[in-house]
Amino acid sequence: MFDFSAIADGFALLFTDWTTWSLVIPGLIIGLVFGVIPGLQTSMAMAMFLPITFALDFLTAILFLTAIFTGGMFGGGITALLMNIPGTSSAVATTFDGYPMTLKGLHNEALGLALGASCIGCILGYTVLMLLIQPLTGVVLSLGPTEMFVIILWGLTLIATLGEGYVIRSLLIGVAGLLVGTIGMSATGVIRGTFGSPYLLDGVAIIPAMIGMFAASELFGLPKAAAISGSQHTKAIDLRGVVRGLGQSRGRMGTIIRGSLIGTIVGAVPGVGSSVANLVSYGSAKRRSKDPGSFGKGNPDGLAASESANSSSEGGGMVSLFALGIPGGAGTAVLLAAFSIHNVTGGPRFMAEKADVIYAIILANIAQAILLLIVGLLLLPLLATIVRVPRTVLGPSVLVMATFGCFGITGDLTGPTTLLVFSAVGFVLRKYRYSVAAAVIGMLLGGMAESELLRSYQISGGQFSYILGRPITLALLAMLVGSLLLPYWLARIKARASMAAS
Q1: Closest CA to 214 of 40, 85, 73
Q2: Predicted local confidence at residue 192, as pLDDT
Q3: Which of 104, 277, 442, 501 is the S-S candidate for 174 at Cβ 3.0 to 4.6 Å?
Q4: Which residues pair with 191 in a beta bridge?
């Protein structure tokens, strides 16, 4: 299962130049800070700091962004534990037993257990990914342009049906995102959707648009959000208690391993990710428990299951990004944008030709989890008080940073203008429950979908019957249709069960 030659080359990439590691600890700190403040998502932090990666080499850029991802997964659980307010959507299940532990005076032990489960979950998630890389390479190399086009549509469909918002609305906005991604001059020299503007000949500036939709649109709502700085449940952090809680993670290794495997599997499904993984893992731990009634009242197993799953889902989310070049959610969508900045395309060719880079990323992320253990312990006292920053100050400050970053990307007012336009678009989408992730991922995949469709048309000669001779394509189409119908089937089954019960 291991390509030892590629693993050795990956080690060489990581340790030939130590500057590769220079931004890992800053990335972890950024992720922790953004994760601990309710309303500031991890994907927002990644999008905000994406412009910095223009000046970095590819590996350093990816390690910086994945460090933000890793830090944010644990950071979101801190306010969930201390104040019953999930810092990120992936920490919802952490509140179920974490906050009751805080009310019992066990907040230090809960923080230590959450940190240990997060670090172990992250390590196991990337270890599973490393086991899958070589088998996946052989599978994805058998996929042609027709299969890749259907996979793009299927991934977008899963994100729409399993992600935020209403299904039909999310599907529509995902298709709209695909169309926006094709604006500009095509590979065949055809100009589309520019409305005569020369600024759109190269297409929409994706990075400013992404920052606008993910970050700026959410910042608009921060000043109106309820203040939490004066919460009476904020408690002093005692590192000795945190270390005791960290030691408790060894006694709950079975729960953590199961949660990590669930998180990895669920995280690999596009559109699901950590937001669902932590809930699924929590439910599994409760069902397997000998005392399910204690869950929701401060059972440490519930906390360990939730935190291990949301951190391991990061490794699972990398599967589709590496293998197919398709992001599984908001965080990996930002990573895909970083790929495009450095002219790197994920997918079969990337896995076959750059296995050493993939192993380097995986090994570095395992090391990041160990560094998170140290950085998290040192910064916990500060992170527990950082929510005291007024949101009316925080929102405008971050927005100004985003505007300057977008200006640096384009070198003119196109970047800030795109940021402004798409922040308004993102705000409207959030208000009316459309999937922002589906829109952004559609924009990122628009060019790829168009090129794969064009290649399919050229190979088939325009004959639709060509698909009938592609069994993998037919199987993928069947799964696409099934994913569209699945929510309605589940809703009908649930309705019938409720009627029968009544």
Answers
A1: 40
A2: 82
A3: 442
A4: 185
Helices (H), 141-252: 145-162, 167-180, 206-211, 217-219, 239-251
pLDDT at 227: 45
Q: How wide is the angle at C-alpha 457 spanned by C-alphas 451 and 459, nearest 5°?
A: 100
- The greatest distance separating any two alpha carbons of the chain, rounded to the nearest whole angstrom, comes to 70
pLDDT for the residue numbered 62:
92
Residues 190-247: tens digit of each pLDDT = 788 888 788 788 788 877 887 788 766 666 665 554 444 444 444 577 888 888 888 8
Q: DSSP letter at 184?
A: E
Tens of pLDDT, residues 280-302 = 788 888 888 888 888 888 889 98
What distance in Å separates the CA atoms of residue 430 and residue 434, rounded to the nearest whole number? 6
* Residue found by looking up tokens 């080690």 in the block: 11
Q: What tokens does 387 get?
A: 């929510």
Give every CB contact of residue 419 below 8 A, 6+ residues apart in sequence.
208, 209, 211, 212, 216, 402, 403, 406
For residue 184, list its beta bridge partners: 192
CA atoms of 210 and 54, how far apart (whole Å): 15
The 3-state DSSP composition of the chain as helix, strand, coil percent (nearest 5) reads 75, 0, 20
- The two structure tokens encoding residue 258: 């199961």
Whole-angstrom distance between the N-terminal and C-terminal Cα of the chain? Answer: 52
The helix/strand count (H/E) of the chain reads as: 21, 2
Radius of gyration of the chain from Cα atoms?
A: 22
How confident is the model over 48-101, as pLDDT tens digits? Answer: 888 888 888 899 999 999 999 889 888 878 877 877 766 666 777 888 888 888
Could you tell me the two tokens for 126? 């990337």
Helix 300-324 and helix 273-288: axis angle, to 10°? Answer: 140
Q: What is the DSSP string of 368-395?
A: HHHHHHHHHHHHHHHHTTGGGS-HHHHH
